[in-house]
Write a structure and sequence with these properties.
This protein is an alpha+beta fold. The protein contains 13 helices and 26 strands. This is Restriction endonuclease subunit S. Keywords: DNA-binding, Endonuclease, Hydrolase, Nuclease, Restriction system.
Length: 480
């Protein structure tokens, strides 16, 4: 875990996380693990080296003052002056969800006005899961908030408990589990705050609280930065596809894409040429000359069609020797390009339908018309293709074709599908689908361009997942 902390700290610096006192102190901190034993029962598994004192034990009620909420839904108004914290405002991780509900001060709501560094805990979950029970929001800005019934305002004794540390503590897995343990109810889960007040908490001295809170804040900032980057890249990809494929002849209607400005800060500048022809974004040949205009073709004129062969769930195994793709995975695992196959089967290869490199696959059945219009290109040959898959085999660049079908043609393909409870899509329907096809060279440039954006999105998604997993581990090990 110590090495992992060092690696993440270095990654923050390399990726340009804003330098501040919190991140700078983290980058120069060493950590060590200490395990609980009989003489040191109040020591966390993970802490900073400069602190070694045993934690002090309290009941939560010894460290706070509190005040319950009151029913204010009837005062919600469109142009209210204050943000309104209702049950829908709580996320599982204690982040405020702005559901755009607003409320103004009046005789009843003024007493429920929150101040900076207040915390507010939700005591009710309308579901049976209780996922948000105990979720606690920290008021860390100058915005004005008013809280509703089934919530409790918490003000920490700042000589004992830092508000920011309290926020991380109360949202830690162990403390949330403790709150859930004193909850009640069946169809709705709720907890009485006196029971929460009686829960034990273990606190380090304030300097250590502040160090821990600063470290975890830096991890949160890292996650937020990565999420913003991912959102920008996704918007950038969407805007590029709109301009690459937008054309009345190729079936893309203006309402199928949002007309976002290209967020150039999301990635390095893309070098391409724009031509005022059929499409608003075009590439040039390597010699600088324009490619010829796209030609209209029916899919049946440029491709042949076949079907995969059934591979049941029981036939999929980690011990399987043949990589395989089942139709349901197109909805859950894969995007337009399948370069890494995640499933394997124990069935003999000679009993299966195997891919050729560049095959494009589309589900032959699904739950909704729009979901069934999902195309992916299989990069490698020798991959077993399961039943309920339409296999499209052509000389068109398969990656380009998958992006084109999955975006420009999505609504037209959805319109071809038939059925109600189970939707079916047949090769006979796909054959008459009219496409606009560029030259081979432009197909390749479009495919490479969009694939490069997807690669960046995948990298950022992986980094975001790692950061969130890392934070979860910290919350489990830095609080006793």
């Amino acid at each position: 875990m110590n090495d992992k902390l060092s690696r993440v700290n270095a990654e923050f610096q390399d990726d340009g996380t804003p330098k501040n006192s919190a991140t700078e102190s983290i980058q120069h901190s060493k950590t060590s693990t200490q395990h609980s034993c009989a003489t040191h029962a109040l020591v966390p598994k993970l802490r900073f080296d400069e602190f070694n004192a045993v934690y002090s034990s309290y009941h939560l009620g010894d460290t706070i003052t509190h005040k319950g909420g009151t029913a204010l839904e009837s005062f919600v108004e469109e142009n209210g002056t204050h943000k309104f914290i209702s049950i829908g405002s709580y996320s599982k991780d204690g982040k405020f969800i702005d559901n755009q509900q607003r409320i103004s001060l009046n005789a009843k709501s003024e007493s429920r006005l929150l101040e900076k560094n207040d915390l507010v805990m939700v005591l009710n979950d309308k579901t049976k899961t209780g996922d948000i029970i105990g979720s606690t929001i920290l008021i860390d800005s100058s915005d004005s908030y008013i809280y509703n019934q089934r919530s409790e305002r918490i003000i920490t004794n700042k000589e004992l408990l830092s508000p920011l540390y309290a926020w991380f503590l109360l949202n830690s897995p162990k403390q949330r589990k403790n709150v859930f343990s004193v909850s009640q109810g069946g169809t709705q889960i709720y907890v009485n705050f006196p029971a929460v007040k009686s829960l034990k908490i273990h606190l380090p001295a304030l300097p250590e609280q502040e160090k821990i809170a600063a470290f975890l804040t830096a991890v949160d900032q890292r996650a937020e930065q990565l999420q913003r980057k991912k959102t920008l890249l996704q918007s950038y990809k969407k805007a590029c596809m709109q301009r690459l494929f937008s054309n009345a002849e190729c079936g893309m209607m203006s309402d199928e894409f949002q007309h976002d400005e290209t967020p150039t800060s999301a990635t390095e500048p893309i070098h391409h040429s724009k031509l005022s022809t059929q499409h608003s974004l075009r590439f040039r040949q390597d010699n600088g000359e324009p490619y010829s205009d796209w030609e209209e073709k029916k899919l049946g004129e440029i491709a042949t069609f076949s079907k995969g062969k059934g591979i049941s769930k029981n036939d999929v195994s980690e011990e399987g020797t043949t990589k395989c793709i089942r139709y349901g995975e197109l909805y859950t695992v894969y995007t337009e390009t399948i370069s890494t196959v995640f499933s394997s089967t124990t069935l003999p290869a000679n009993e299966l339908v195997m891919s050729r490199a560049n095959d494009v696959i589309i589900p032959a059945s699904g739950e909704t018309h729009i979901d069934i219009a999902t195309a992916s290109c299989v990069i490698d040959e020798g991959i077993a293709l399961g039943g309920d898959l339409n296999i499209i085999r052509s000389n068109v660049n398969g990656v380009f074709l998958a992006y084109y079908l999955n975006n420009a043609m999505k609504h037209k393909i959805a319109g071809l599908a038939q059925g109600s409870s189970v939707i079916h899509l047949y090769a006979s329907q796909l054959k008459d689908l009219k496409l606009q096809v560029p030259t081979k060279g432009e197909q390749t440039k479009i495919a490479n361009f969009l694939s490069s954006i997807d690669t960046k999105i995948e990298q950022v998604t992986h980094q975001l997942t790692q950061t969130l997993t890392f934070k979860k581990g910290l919350l489990q090990q830095m609080f006793t």
